[in-house]
Design a protein that fits this description.
Elements (H helix, E strand, L loop, with lengths): L2 H13 L3 E6 L2 E9 L1 H22 L4 H17 L2 H16 L1
Antiparallel strand pairs: 1-2
């Protein structure tokens, strides 16, 4: 990720109260970024909503069918390159948007 973009994202997270940033007392060139209480609350709420959506999507499947689906989706994810491919695609998209 481009450092300029990272700073912009951190600025917005900080302005919205989702994160805090402070200088590292051991190295004043560095900043320590932490998720705030408000940010943690948003993460918790997002996880709850995602769990509810997942339950709604999968409610017609038996537990064994859910397990099979999870294995199949994980295999597709890994075959397609997983996180490395996702990061590369995100980088390309970011460059094109700039």
């Amino acid at each position: 990720m481009d450092p300029t973009n990272l700073v912009a994202i951190l600025n917005e997270l900080e302005q919205r109260g989702f994160a805090t940033r402070r200088r590292d007392p051991k190295d004043r060139r560095r900043h320590i970024v932490e998720v705030s209480k408000k940010g943690l609350a948003i993460i918790d709420k997002s996880a709850e909503v995602m769990d509810q959506v997942e339950q709604e999507l999968l409610e017609g499947l038996e537990p064994a069918e859910r397990d099979q689906l999870e294995v199949a989706l994980a295999a597709i994810w890994e075959t397609s390159g997983g996180y490395d491919a996702y990061s590369a695609a995100a980088d390309v998209e970011e460059e094109q948007a700039a």
